[in-house]
Write a structure and sequence with these properties.
Number of helices: 2
Largest sheet: none
Structural class: mainly alpha
Shape: rod-shaped
Helix content: over 70%
Order of helices and strands: HH
Distance between the termini: 103 Å
Length: 92
């Protein structure tokens, strides 16, 4: 590492330390308060996701039942039509 390179490294480290110090001085909340705020936000997001997943499960379940009912009706209609055609065939 040359002399200029080590100067750049020291300037970089000094800038990083200065930036970290300024961030701590001007931070509106303490680290503990910030972590608590993030934790509460995450809990809120978790609850909203759980609610939405539950809603989606309900919607999916209802759609499955609706599809199942339509399929059963279609099968009944198909059987009825088949029987009618078989009766027509038997009569001739």
């Amino acid at each position: 590492m040359g002399r200029n390179d080590s100067g750049n490294l020291y300037a970089f480290l000094a800038g990083g330390l200065l930036g970290a110090g300024l961030a701590l001085m001007f931070a509106p909340k303490s680290g503990r308060e910030t972590r608590e705020q993030i934790k509460e936000y995450a809990k809120g997001v978790e609850e909203r996701v759980k609610t939405q997943v539950g809603d989606l499960k309900d919607i999916a379940s209802n759609e499955v039942h609706r599809f199942k009912d339509k399929a059963q009706d279609a099968v009944k209609e198909g059987k009825k039509a088949f029987k009618e055609e078989m009766d027509k065939f038997s009569e001739s």
